[in-house]
Amino acid sequence: MAKSKKYAYRVVQDNNSWTCEITRRVTSRVTVITKSQAGFTTEDEATAWGQAQVKALLKSTNLNERNKRRAIKAAQH
């Protein structure tokens, strides 16, 4: 699993193929599947896809940049 509080991935084997699911933590008890991709031939391919998708989701949320901008504005006032 990826190391993120909000997003993670899990790899599941379905017969002879692998499926990767991107999960999002809604609350401490509820987790929802955000994306899913099936049909990988190896576990490594599924893991690589999951890592890339989690990285893209974390980059697209821009949470860190927004927090930095807000901290600068708060410091100026």
Write the layout of secondary structure elements.
Layout: E1 7-14, E2 17-25, E3 31-40, H1 43-61, H2 63-76
Antiparallel strand pairs: 1-2, 2-3
Describe this structure in words.
This protein has a three-stranded antiparallel beta sheet, with helices on one face. The termini are far apart. It is of the alpha+beta class and 77 residues long. 43% of the residues lie in helices and 35% in strands. The model has no long low-confidence stretch (mean pLDDT 88). It has one domain (7-76).
The end-to-end span amounts to: 41 Å
List the uncertain runs.
none
- The share of residues in extended strands comes to 35-45%
Largest sheet: 3 strands, antiparallel
Tell me which oligomeric state these chains represent.
Answer: single chain
Rg computed from alpha carbons, rounded to a whole number of angstroms? 16 Å
Structure class: alpha+beta
Number of strands: 3
**Mean pLDDT, rounded to whole units?**
88
Number of domains: 1
**Share of residues in helices:** 40-55%
The number of helical runs is: 2
**What is the N-to-C order of secondary-structure elements (H for helix, E for strand)?**
EEEHH
Instruction: Tell me the strand order in the biggest sheet.
Output: 1-2-3
- Principal-axes shape call: elongated
